[in-house]
Amino acid sequence: MQTFQVLIIGSGFGGQCAAINLLKAGIDDFRLLERRDFFGGTWCQNTYPGAAVDVPSPLYSLSFAPYRWTQMFAEQAELHRYTRHVVEHFGLRDKVELGANVEHIEWDDASKRWTVYTASKGTFCAQFLINATGPLSQPVVPHFDGLERFEGKTFHTNNWDHSYDYRQKRVAIVGSGASAAQVIPAIAPEVGQLHVFQRTPHWVLPRADRRFSRLQRWLLGLKPAYKLLRWWIYWQFETRVFGFKYSKPAVHRVQRQALRFLKHQVPDAELRRKLTPDYTIGCKRVILSSTLYPALTRSNVTLHCREQGIAAIDETGIVTLDGQHIDVDLIVWSTGYDATDGVISYPVTGKNGTRLKDVWAPYPRAYLGTALPDFPNLFIVTGPNTGIGHTSALFIIESQMNYILDCIRTLKAQGLSSIEVRHEAERTYTEMIHREMERTVWKSGGCHSWYQSKSGHVIAMFPGFSFSFHRLTRVLKPADHILS
């Protein structure tokens, strides 16, 4: 058994941020456990055509790791390079165990340690455990009758097969969300026929991308300039919360803008009808794209809406609900992730045999989206209700680190072994979250989205300003915890 003070599960930005903050706190007795055979998480895994970030790159980066970005919205390859930059700059490569797929974890109250069982790398033990697997790591592929008989190629956008040549092929994309909105414009000019199966249309706004000049990139390398730009973008984006929660006129104004954009880019009235959502903008993830609508108007692209959806799949293609048979060579699943009920994919057993699966059976929840009663010394990065619909997820991750590191430092300072949030503190926090959620567009906007769990609770999002979350996580509240 390999023993460390801290184990971090996952090596994406959440895991990297945790590792770097531990090093800054003088803690180097840790390991990152990565199930894949490479370091880096989402932006190393998602290599589908057109993959790019939808938050400006200077903000979608770690505050302590500035970078000379080439464009405002970085594409996957550049995000991959940034990941390598962070790993090398902070010396993290020797701290990762690749191919360490976690099967389950258990808390031992006698030793006050977590035991982590992996499929092929043996057993690990640690005082503290940080889950940084991320909410967008478990792809969902829907089941359709006959799928196993399909003789063509299929894969999820999360695991794009670059050995398959889709050029001049008949391709179906199932899904119309954020990843589909990037894939469709990227491959539409090259495929023979493209069939897009849309269950629900999304609101789309133009993407204000731009390439940085040589001078601008030089300035991005200067920390004061980088910090100034980050804060300018941050406060500009933070105002969007008024639309999500506080101001119906602001929502309607943005929705009218989206309708004008749709009318401008899609001249065909029938196609516009299919692409017009029937819910309030913001209820589902808003797509930023200046190329999606033009791609959908191409002569080789056909949009199939809900009533023309998939009834079954056979050897050669797709049978639709309205009786069509569509021959296809490739089916691309752009169907998202289990980002709410499946936020932690492996079994977790805490004190007295308490199973996380049972605790979360009604719906996932956590104090500050980070800690749970009966699960001492366990911290969840991007846990329940930490998603942010208007700004960078990395800001939230860095805020969580304030709380996590404060917990660890407090125990070390007092010579204690474990810290656990109290039941009443978690309950009070969770009740506040869902009380505030009632006022948001995610709850009242008239849609069902991946933001919601099977229970109907909005689990993915934080119902307020990101600086409010930062304030909540800034200082540990000892009264909310049991220290032993």
TrEMBL record:
Q: What is this protein called?
A: Cation diffusion facilitator CzcD-associated flavoprotein CzcO
Species? Pseudomonas synxantha
